[in-house]
Each structure stands twice: as C-alpha cells, then as structure tokens.
Amino acid sequence: MKNMLLRLCKSAGCFTLSSRLCRHSLQILCYHGLSFEDEHIFSPGTFMTRDTFARRLAYLRDNDFNVLDLGKAIERFRTNSLEPKSVVITVDDGFYSFYKLGVPLLKEYGYPSTLYVTSYYVKHSNPIFRLTVQYMFWKSHYNDAGLLKLLSDLTNSSLSEMHDGKQSLRKLIEHAESKLNEEERNKFLEEIANRLNVDFDKIRTQRLFSLVKIDEIQSMQTDGVDIQLHTHRHKLPEDPLEIEYEINKNREVLAPVVTSPLTHFCYPSGIWSEKHCQPLAELEIKTATTCDPGLNKPGSNLLALSRFVDSEEFADIVFDAELSCFKEVIRNAIGKC
Ligand SMILES: [Zn+2]
Questions:
Q1: Which contacts (CB < 8 Å, 24+ apart) does range 244-248 have?
Q2: Fold of the domain built from segment(s) 15-124+211-334
Q3: Mind listing the pLDDT tens digit for each residue in 83-132?
Q4: Are 230 and 253 in contact (CB under 8 A)?
Q5: Ligand 1 centroid vs 240 CA: distance in angstroms?
Q6: How far is the CA of 188 from the centre of ligand 1 (A)?
Q7: Which has the closest alpha carbon to 281: 253, 244, 309?
Q8: Angle (deg, nearest 10), helices 316-323 and 326-334
Q9: pTM for this one?
Q10: 306 alpha carbon – ligand 1 mean position (Å)
Q11: Which class for 208: exposed (0-12), middle (13-18), buried (19 or more C-beta within 10 A)?
C-alpha cells in the first residue's frame, strides 16, 4: 500500500520536484554485509543480496548521481561547493561478504566507498558470536517450549526462570559476551550448534558472520575502499577514557595496513549522544556518522552526520523515494519517517 502510494507520487512528478529542493545536500548511504545464502532472510536489515546491491548501484549510475569519496565530499560540503546529487557510500563493520561480493561490484561501477571496520573480530578471526547464535537458533526452527528447555540446559538455569525464548536468548548472549573468553565462546558456539543440529563448520568455512582479515583490509584499499574507524569492540560508552580506549585500540589494529589517516568514524549501531562529540574531537575524529535518517545540509554537525540505512526489505521505489529526497520532504512535513 505504502509502495503503491510512492509510485503514484512519483508518476505525479513529486520525486522530480523534491529532488530540486535538496540539490545542495549530501546523502550518505549505509550498508552492512551481503548474503551468501539465506542471511538476508534471517536479518534483512544487516544483510542484502548481491542482486539488490547491484540494483542500487545501477540506480545511482542511471540517475546521474555523483558518488564521492567521504573525505572529498566533506571537503566540498564544508566549502559549499558540493555538486548536485552528491552521494557517499558507507559500509559498516567489515563483513567478509562485503569484501567478497560487494567490493567487486563497486569496482565494476568505479564507485569509491568507506568501510568502517570494528577490529575485535578482525584480530580474532572467529565468527561474530552474537550473530552466529541468533542465526543458529533461527535456522533450527525451534518452537518456544523446545527453545526454553535448550536454553535452560545451556545456561544451567531452572526452566521456571526462563520466561520467553527471545529474552532468554538475549541473556545467553550477554552471559557469553561478558563472562567467557574468546576461546570459551567459540567452544560454546560449537556446543550450541551440536545441540541445534546446525552445521557450524559450514558457517565458519563460508565465513557467513566473519569479518575481513587484516590482509584483506590491505588489499581492498587498491579497489577504492577507504578504511575507517568503528571502535574495537563495537561499542562506545560515554566515558571519555573508554571512548579513548575504543578509538585507540581500533586505530592500533588498523593503522599497520591502512594508508589514509584514520579520522572518520561511525557510531556502533548508530547510538550516539552529544557527550561523545567533545572526546571524539579531541581524538582528532573529523566526521562521525549515525543511523539517523535525513540529509546533511550546510551547518550540519560533522560529528553527527545522518545516513540512509538501506535494507533488503526496501522495495526499489523506497530507495528511489529516499534518493530523490521525497521521503525527506515527507519527514519534514510530518516530523517522522
Ligand atoms: Zn556496526
């Protein structure tokens, strides 16, 4: 219904009109991983099929968008010399699937991109615990009663303490992330996979939920991928000392292979507050991107830039509505997305 309305608005000329109203704004797109198998069905907000990503790039080319490198775009943005229809492509986390499927596509189109890499799993080369556990439970199609019984076994809790599957799964993840070391967590993953009868070896060898390795980060740069910061452990507390730790550790892992200055940053999961800005500026961070929707206009806070977080769930008309600024006009008119 919503998509049909958007198509009607487009055919009435609204998209053409709205695109004229935001000619001098900067649009920043956000992606995460691509899908090798069924990851886009499991989590369409995080994983996109190669075909959908290819259609997005074709749209940008066919509609004469200027896809710019982030540093260049920010410079033009600051000096008010941004060309109309300027777009930056950003990619969060550093999934192997982006390296394997996304980078060749971007290279084919000659588009630069910025990849914000979170470094803990780059260093440890294991599948991301949280995502892998969630995927395995999703894959196993456990019913609620079976899931609760299994979770009570895995966490040595009595069944009466387990209320609902989702909440208990969250507790299991929090427990493993805070109490177990990397080796124990990986063994725990194997145990869960055995109990769920899910092929963990396949997940590990296909690297469905693994990040890029350090040599892959190095090689991507020659294909126009600018590597930037995304914290070490994918979290950014508000305490200045913890912010400093996350940024410095992230830099320490990436700096040996990254050729450009590590001065651009993306808030993990887009969670940010004004309290982050001063410490980040003191750490020589020049820009920081959020997941807040909207366009960046002259005068925007460079440490809280807005982005459009694209998703496999968005039909092509939704992407079109966002890129032609029609959705921004609607957001401004009704005060919400
Ligand atoms: Zn992230």
A1: 244/279, 244/283, 247/280, 247/283, 247/285, 248/283
A2: TIM Barrel (3.20.20)
A3: 999 999 999 999 999 999 999 999 999 999 999 999 999 999 899 999 99
A4: no
A5: 20
A6: 23
A7: 244
A8: 70
A9: 0.93
A10: 15
A11: buried
